[in-house]
Amino acid sequence: MTTPTYNELLQMPQWRTKRKEILLRDGNKCRSCGTKGNLHIHHRQYHANSKTGLQVLPWKYKNDLLVALCANCHRAGHSLYQIKTFSY
Ligand SMILES: [Zn+2]
Ligand SMILES: [Zn+2]
To answer: Which of 25, 42, 51, 83 is deepest in the core (most CB within 10 A)?
Structure first.
């Protein structure tokens, strides 16, 4: 079995469930500009296991580290800020 890519992880049912939860909390709109279409869930931090170096699964984050953003704000955010990865 190969390690799934990040994009593959985002297709998994666990992520779909988490995604819905965040979208519901954020009223199905972008937290930055209020747009209602083409929403992504953005991770404000990434976490990695310090022993294995593996990224924590995308749905294993606390909800307050996740925000709904539209595709534009999401792209802009990533080009402005480097998302920090915390190892533990
Ligand atoms: Zn937006
Ligand atoms: Zn993001």
So the answer is: 42
